[in-house]
Amino acid sequence: MKTYSLSHLQALESESIHIMREVAAEFERPVLLFSGGKDSICMLRLAEKAFRPGRFPFPMMHIDTEHNFPELIDFRDRRAQELGEKLIVRSVGDAIKSGIARETPGESSRNRLQTPTLLAALEEFKFDCALGGARRDEEKARAKERVFSFRDAFGQWDPKNQRPELWNIYNARINPGEHMRVFPLSNWTEMDIWEYIDREKLEIPSIYFSHEREVVRRDGQWLPVSHLLPKKENEQSHHLKVRVRTIGDISCTGCVESVAVTIKDIITEIAAARVTERGSRADDKRSETSMEDRKREGYF
Known about the structure:
- By secondary structure, the chain is α/β, with parallel strands linked by helices.
- Helix content is 34%, strand content 15%.
- It has 10 helices and 10 strands.
- The strands form 2 sheets. The chain has a 6-stranded mixed sheet with strand order 3-2-1-4-6-5, sandwiched between helices. A 4-stranded antiparallel sheet has the order 8-7-9-10, with no helix packed on it.
- α1 packs across α2, α2 packs across α7 and α7 runs antiparallel to α8.
- The chain is globular and about 60 Å long.
- 39% of the residues are buried.
């Protein structure tokens, strides 16, 4: 009798596809959050494997800080068009104008302002479930979160009041006004993501590869010089060969020196890295509130 065993990536893929299909079966109005970053790129491939040749049972949505790398937005729009799926974009700038989000004087990053923008968008479209690409290995607060993470009527998360998850059985029951955040990549690592991208031959934005960029050293990070992050009078900028490991607001997304020009080069770099993926996010380093506090308020 022949036996068949799954490889590590095949097992992760199978679990993620099961989670996506569970969402499609249990919720009336789910949405898939897509930023164009490496994790959400993998989410799209998993959705293709879960639902093609049919259409996705949910639209895609991006909460746009308007402080993005241009390469990322170009990739986001083109990828949605190639898939023929609906892409909803809600911007932090519009949320500020309408009074939904409020800027803090002196705060350059708009990552915090994504929370009220996201909650308003979920309410606008009456979405009862939001699928995202967060992983437990990224940050300790995310490690606490269940695959099906319940949010109350105010979009808030209580880490001490979570539902048990036994094997692959998920409790999707919610009341009107409540919603669920679902993380199909919870058990993946950064290395898993890149090995999956390599296996599936997925296209990624060019900023993930080594390229020359003007950067300044600030908060222990190489930060890209731009109109949103100009060089200060006492700072010296450098033109270095760099790439990004994780993508967020351009004003706080750190770059790492790199010569990686292929996916396999990136995998080799990550295997030798001694700094975590989010160690290159300056907003995590200087934020006065922890990730857990932000997630309690509704941050994805």
